[in-house]
Each structure stands twice: as structure tokens, then as C-alpha cells.
User: Fold these one by one.
Assistant:
Number 1:
Amino acid sequence: MGKKGFVDKHNASGAEKQQKQVDIIEKLGGYDNLVSQGAEGRVFAVKFCGRDTIVKQRFKKTYRHPTLDTKLTRSRLGMEARSMMRARKLGVATPTLYYVDQQQSAIYMEKVPGKSLKELIREDSMSEKDMEDIGAQVGKAVAKMHDGGLIHGDLTTSNILVRDDDDRTVVIIDFGLASNSIIAEDKGVDLYVLERAITVTHSSQALFEHVMTAYRRA
């Protein structure tokens, strides 16, 4: 009994350690650096392995059974990470993926220095050449995804960044609603969402024309 009791106690201790999960976001001070929060999750800015990093964490759905919620969340998390990497293989600029934390339902990725297309449109500071260059990059990026059977699912101007570099590289982010499809209607929805997001002002309508010109030619 003594020996068996010792083994059982040892196993119980091991199980407790296993159940105690390390909250990496907390250790990195992420909860003190909230960038944004939405219905599906929240975004933090941290230093991860010495690099400026964005952490995107999905919320738990309390209305679902815990086991089902864990399964669905992990599946969605994996799909998002795979879609991001797939887009890169198709030649689309995306943030570098650093780490996927299944326990905390979080993805760690490069913090892209620059502004969102939404910010640039709101500032109304883009020249005609800027619109032509950026629009062409966006159109080519979307065409590459669609030709490769990848639908972004949330192609808004908030999810298109313009990197702060000499080339003003367009970077596509947030593949949380991405899916695999070669159906024309699905591609059309992506483009419709993008059109609605871009043409919020009269001055930005030319930008979408440049997007579509590049999309058709790609």
C-alpha cells in the first residue's frame, strides 16, 4: 500500500503540474499592452524572443460545451496559421508567423511597421502614384490568393497594411475567416467586401479601379 500509495501520489502530482498551464501572454506582459479587442478575440503587443510581436488570442465561447469549444477553436486556429503560410507560398506578403499557442488559443506573429490602408484612406494623403502602386499590389495579392484557391474571408482595409519601407510593401493580415475555395462566387464576395471598404470616400474610388486592373491582369 505504501509503495502503491507513493506511486499514486507521485502520479497525481505530475497530473497537477501537467494541468497547470503556463500563460505566456501574461509572462510577456501582454495583458498590459492591449492593442484592440473585437467579438472574436483580442490583440496584444509584446516582445517575443527579442522581436516586436503581435499576439492574436481567440476568446472562449462560453455558450458552447467546453470540449467542443476547445476542439473548434484549435481547428480554427490551425486553419488561420496554415492559411497565412499558404498565402506566403503563393507569393503574398504576410506577417512572419512565430508561434502557435494551442493552450492559450493564440497566434504570435511579426508586428509589421506601417499603417493600415484604412488609415491611409482616412488621412487622404495618398498621391495618384501612391494609389496606383498600392492598388496594383493589393490587386496582385488578391489574385494570387484566389488563383491558389484561398479565400481571405475578411478583406477589409483594416486587414491590409502598407509596410513602412522604401517599396511600401502591401501586407495582408488576419486570416481568421480564411477558407479554401475555387468557386467564383466566393472570390466575388472577397472583392465585394474590399470594394465596400475602399470606396467609403469619393477620392478613394480610383484606388479600387487600380486594384481591379491589377487583379484582372494577374
Note: The first strand starts at residue 34 and ends at 37.
Number 2:
Amino acid sequence: MLAAADPATGGREVTVVSLLDAAASGLEQAQGGDAEVTAAIQRTLAQSYRALGLLDPALANAEAAFKRVSAGPANARAAAALVLGEIRLVRGEADQALPLLTEARTVYAADPGSALERAAADNLLGELHSQAGRFAQAERHYADAIASVRAKLPANAPRLAELLDNLAVARGRAGKLADAEDLHTQSLAIFRAAHGERHPHTAHALFNLANVREMRDDFAGADSAYRQAEDIQRQVLGDTHPDLAQTLASHTFMLNRAGRTADALQRGREAVAAADALTPPTR
């Protein structure tokens, strides 16, 4: 039986990572049990490590989950392939990610009840092809993911907004800037409807919109979107959050490109102050 670390006995030394490590170790030592259940726990551990940026233990758990169900039911194998493929992609191992994500998509495409899982696979395949500069393939996968989500979820579902943003990025990379701006605008409207104005996702959507407007040399429109994003991030995330530092830095470069030197210097000082607050002083 899997035993978790006990925070009550671990005192202040117990961390999220130590809890994950204890759970992973318990799984490795466990004998018997339901393979699909154990694989599902390993997938969850892999995703938790991935969210913390710990890609080596994420990969180890994802590989263990995939191996555990390699001869099992198709849907269990597809679920493990999807997680392993995502972690491979995040690690920059696109060649190894591609067959895993393709396998997952193929299985889910044959099951009408797995439309959202297929959308997840299409989204990751879109990202993979977009990173490789294969924009037509990326757009097809993103479009399929959007169609699947629209068929299953409400029109203001944040997941739809995320997919529209991803398609917008691919079209922007392909030089289709007007299309990209339209998609970012649609995404922003959905995030506002779902989360309201004062939310990190709304701020991020404004940041993306500002970027594409800057690429189109619409400096006034970009300036407005950057300022809105900064206001939200200051209120919701605080003056020392890395998202604010990134927005301020991008805004600085935009203002400099627009010839607004004094404004660029002011934003630059704010960006440096935010970045310095994130960096522990050296001794």
C-alpha cells in the first residue's frame, strides 16, 4: 500500500517536493496492485513534478506509468503516452514526443467520449509543430483542438481561450499577424467573461495582444494593452512577480522602438526594480 509522508511528523522540513519524493518511492517499493491505478498515480506525480519544473523526476514517473500499462487497455496506454509526450516536449525532446502524442491522439480520435483528451493531444502536437516551424501542421492540430472543445464546453470556457491563444501564436510566427490579433482578441474576451478583468489569465491575454500589436507596428494599441496588463498584474500578483517584470521589459522595448525614449527609460527602471526583487543578493 502507498504511504504518504506525514507533515505532522516532518515539521518545517516537509516540502511539496519531499512529499512527492516519498509518494514516488512508495510506488516503486509497492508490489502488486492494480496496474492502471498505479499508473494513474504515477502520471499525477509526473505532472506535479513538471509543474514544479523538476523535469527529471517528472520523466522518470511518466516513463514508469507508460511502461506499467504498455500492454494494457488502449485508453490507459494513451493517457500515459499523453503525459510522457508532454514531458518529452517540455524537455525539448520533440522527436521522442511526436510518436507518443500521435499514438494518444489516434486512440482518442476513435472514441467519441474522449473528445477533450483528443483536444489535449492536438494542442501538444500543435505546439510541437509550431516550435519546429511547421505552421500549417500546427494550425491544423490547433483547429481540431478548438473544434473538439467547442463541441463539448461552453463558449466562455477558459480552455477554449487558451487554444485560441496558441493558434494565434502559431499564426503570428507564420507572419499572419492580422489573424493572430483577431484570435488574441477573441481569447481576451473569453478570459474576461470567465474570470473578470482582475485575473492573471486576463493579464496574460492582454500581454499576448500587446505583443502582436507591436509586431504590426501598432504602438498605440500595444502601449494600451501593456498598460492594462501591468495594472492587473500589480493589483493581483504584486510588484515583484516575474510576470510583471516580463511585461515591463517587453513594454520598455516597445516604447524604445516607438521612439518614446523618456517613457522607455521609466519603464526600464521599473522592469529592473522588479527583476532585482526576484534575484537574491549575492554575498
Note: The chain has two domains: 15-152, 177-277.
